């Protein structure tokens, strides 16, 4: 069995702020089926500390960026976890990236330490004798791991995966030495980034291979509109970039395991799930009930919802929103609920159980993102026959077959996609949703198509396995 060290800032079930954690937590099991043993290295945040007691120490460094650091090893939910215990960096109240006053000011150092430990483990192995064949770094928090590895002259290959290029790990150039980066590599073709440093750029420059989480996003990243400053780097390395779609855990995300089970073959239970959800949320909706489960941010296009709501609701639609994030967007969602009682229900917060009831009971899931590296909720929607209405970007474009006349007559449509991401195109897509929902025959066919569309990990795990195999060959 080949061995991979996966380095990331979050991992389900230990800590999650977004889809990154789902993917990092799913890969070990998916890859085990492909003959690769993966261990996940992440920081020992306070919320995960209780897990560590009794875990053996497998790596240590007395001065890990200003204090002692050690790695302990254990199993959580079948995943081999390596926790980097460095209290001076991670033992703080608040989120993984921010505290009550906003982002932690030493984030670049905090995640440089994670990357440093990852590179050291890849180079020297653990005290228990385990040594990876490949280092796999996720997003900017692990971006320096391939760089430390490359600059140390080690021959261990590395993969850098971009889950979201909007977050780049920018640091001022004055931190070069503090981040333990070699000054001779501070130039535009390597570490320099708009007069400073970016740990993501460092990873993109130095990793053996680059992946992102959908084929479309891999192409989009070469354009200024989506590359967010790094398009030149991605273009220069195009031969080493590939897009591998995320999967979802089809055991967890399954309409067959809810309170009102149903399947593609026996879809009846969905009507019961819908009735139960409407009762729970106080909704009475004659047309399609659209759901949104999302971080409430600019990326997700949430600000477009108030612009399209009136027309959609007037045509019989309903809306159930679950999310949290930008306070302004939270307020906009609450205002919508107050304006349309019985037709719009808004839950501010994070609630996985409620999200599953929403996927089971909803008719459609709305994902009007401005950019979306992959996106998981449209895939949950497919799985539950809760048809995705998505902006045609990134992974959304790669996973939904839009109900254009050709796809409808060929009987293959699974949802609706629209372009560009603006209120006009989104509004038209919602009108189409109203029309399709009224045509029970086409709707039933689309539901069947969606529920049969494969969204598991098998194919993508095989692609990661092939990528690793190519690197160690
Ligand atoms: P991103 O990582 O950009 O937020 P993804 O679609 O990849 O987008 O992943 C988001 C994940 O977080 C999904 O599993 C989604 O169901 C979940 N999620 C987002 N907001 C909430 C919420 N308020 N309650 C429950 N789950 C949520
Ligand atoms: C990021 C992206 C999302 C993707 C997730 C997991 O959070 O915004 O599109 O699904 O990472 O790769």
What is the element layout, followed by pairings?
Elements: E1 2-7, H1 19-32, E2 36-43, H2 49-52, E3 57-61, E4 69-76, E5 79-85, H3 87-90, E6 98-99, E7 102-103, H4 107-124, E8 134-138, H5 144-151, E9 158-162, E10 170-172, E11 192-193, E12 196-198, H6 199-206, E13 209-212, H7 215-220, H8 224-227, H9 231-236, E14 241-243, H10 269-281, E15 289-296, H11 305-314, E16 318-325, H12 327-339, E17 344-348, H13 352-361, E18 364-367, H14 377-384, E19 387-391, H15 394-399, H16 405-410, E20 416-418, H17 423-438, H18 440-452, H19 458-472
Parallel strand pairs: 1-2, 1-8, 2-5, 8-9, 9-13, 13-14, 15-16, 15-18, 16-17, 18-19, 19-20
Antiparallel strand pairs: 3-4, 4-5, 6-7, 10-12, 11-12
Helix pairs in contact: 4-5, 5-6, 10-13, 11-17, 14-18
The structure holds adenosine-5'-diphosphate (ADP) and alpha-D-glucopyranose (GLC).
The site of alpha-D-glucopyranose has 14 residues, from α1.
């Amino acid at each position: 069995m080949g061995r991979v060290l996966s380095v990331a800032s979050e991992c389900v079930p230990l800590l999650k702020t977004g889809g990154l954690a789902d993917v990092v937590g799913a890969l070990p099991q998916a890859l085990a089926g492909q003959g690769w043993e993966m261990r996940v290295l992440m920081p020992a945040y306070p919320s995960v500390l209780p897990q560590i007691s009794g875990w053996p120490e497998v790596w240590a460094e007395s001065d890990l960026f200003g204090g002692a650091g050690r790695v302990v090893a254990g199993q959580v939910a079948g995943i081999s976890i390596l926790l980097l215990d460095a209290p001076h960096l991670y033992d703080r109240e608040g989120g993984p990236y921010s505290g009550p006053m906003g982002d932690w000011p030493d984030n670049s150092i905090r995640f440089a330490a994670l990357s440093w430990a990852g590179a050291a483990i890849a180079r020297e192995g653990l005290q228990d004798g385990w040594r990876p064949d490949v280092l796999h770094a996720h997003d900017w928090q692990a971006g320096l791991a391939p760089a430390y590895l490359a600059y140390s002259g080690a021959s261990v290959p590395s993969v850098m995966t971009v889950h979201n290029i909007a977050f780049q790990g920018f640091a001022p150039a004055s931190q070069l030495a503090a981040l333990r980066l070699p000054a001779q590599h501070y130039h535009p073709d390597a570490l320099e980034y708009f007069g400073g440093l970016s740990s993501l750029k460092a990873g993109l420059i130095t990793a053996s291979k680059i992946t992102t989480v959908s084929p479309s996003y891999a192409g989009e990243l070469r354009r200024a509109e989506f590359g967010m400053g790094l398009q030149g780097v991605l273009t220069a390395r195009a031969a080493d970039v590939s897009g591998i779609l995320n999967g979802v855990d089809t055991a967890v995300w399954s309409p067959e395991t809810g309170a009102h089970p149903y399947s593609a073959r026996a879809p009846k239970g969905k009507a019961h799930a819908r009735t139960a959800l409407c009762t729970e949320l106080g909704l009475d909706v004659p047309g399609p009930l659209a759901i949104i489960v999302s971080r409430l941010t600019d990326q997700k296009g949430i600000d477009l919802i108030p612009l399209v709501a009136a027309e959609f609701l007037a045509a019989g639609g309903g809306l159930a929103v679950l999310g949290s994030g930008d306070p302004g967007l939270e307020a906009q969602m609450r205002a919508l609920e107050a304006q349309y009682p019985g037709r719009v229900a808004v839950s501010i917060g994070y609630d996985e159980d409620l999200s599953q009831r929403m996927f089971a009971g909803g008719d459609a899931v709305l994902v009007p993102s401005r950019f979306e590296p992959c996106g998981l909720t449209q895939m949950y929607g497919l799985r539950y026959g809760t048809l995705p209405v998505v902006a045609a970007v990134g992974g959304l474009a790669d996973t939904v077959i839009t109900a254009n006349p050709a796809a409808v007559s060929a009987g293959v449509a699974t949802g609706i996609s629209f372009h560009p991401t603006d209120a006009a195109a989104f509004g038209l897509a919602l009108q189409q949703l109203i029309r399709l929902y009224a045509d029970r025959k086409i709707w039933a066919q689309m539901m069947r198509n969606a529920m049969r569309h494969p969204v598991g990990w098998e194919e993508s795990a095989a692609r990661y396995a092939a990528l690793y195999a190519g690197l160690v060959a």
